[in-house]
Design brief:
This protein is mostly helical and 234 residues long. It contains twelve helices and no strands.
Length: 234
């Protein structure tokens, strides 16, 4: 256990803890919103543990509360979670095998994949993935449970602006990396693609559109670099 702890530096553990804390705070909003919309208190907690995908859970609750059918809500959630397909292709070796792989797939989300891929070396990637994933597995349903208790007595769940904490923490973690010109260009392009697609696409899909655009840009850059190298060699 001590060797696993030492695999990651203190700064990375701090960043993981901050993200998990932010997820828990957003879980408060989720649980309170669900109960205020008429769902029983156990529902957001069970959904949080079994689905473990915030955007699709919020969307599901919003559609049902708005009078939509469960089938429509389910299909919308699956559409939002379509971004997990490229995630799975990006981290197959990190997940391990057997029952660990099954649990690892359940823990897959934006945060675990991003943190893992940012590390050098398979061991660091695995420890980071599992540390972040298990932390979120604890914090998200726990936040939903506390939020459900709050929602039973507080009707205006937007009054405290809890949803703003998660993007604020992510922004604080990203800012140091923006000193690199390449990262800065990629971040601006991704943000532009996401913002342009928000009016036309359901929640969660703009993120997938931004990832697709960045992937296309990466392939184009690699092709250009390869062609230049061949020309220089000739």
């Amino acid at each position: 256990m001590r060797s696993i702890w030492r695999t990651l530096d203190r700064g990375l553990w701090r960043d993981i803890a901050l993200v998990c804390l932010a997820v828990g705070v957003v879980g408060l909003s989720y649980g309170a919103t669900a109960v205020s919309a008429g769902f029983p208190p156990w529902f957001p907690v069970l959904m949080g543990a079994l689905v473990l995908a915030a955007s699709s859970e919020f969307l599901f609750i919003g559609i049902i509360a708005g009078g939509g059918s469960p089938i429509a809500a389910l299909l919308a959630g699956l559409l939002v979670n379509a971004r997990h397909l490229p995630f799975g292709l990006a981290v197959p070796d990190v997940l391990g095998r057997g029952w660990r792989r099954a649990l690892g797939i359940h823990l897959m989300n934006d945060e675990t994949v991003v943190f893992a891929l940012a590390q050098q070396g398979m061991r660091r990637q695995r420890v980071t993935y599992w540390a972040c994933g298990l932390g979120i597995l604890v914090c998200w349903p726990t936040g939903a449970l506390l939020g459900a208790a709050v929602g039973a007595v507080m009707r205006d769940t937007d009054a405290f602006g809890l949803d703003a904490m998660f993007p604020a923490v992510i922004l604080a973690l990203v800012i140091p990396a923006l000193r690199d010109a390449g990262v800065r260009r990629a971040a601006l392009l991704g943000a532009a693609l996401a913002l342009l697609s928000v009016p036309f696409l359901p929640a969660g899909i703009p993120v997938l559109a931004a990832l697709a655009g960045l992937a296309a840009l990466g392939r184009s850059t690699d092709s250009t670099t390869g062609a230049t190298a061949k020309g220089d060699a000739a």
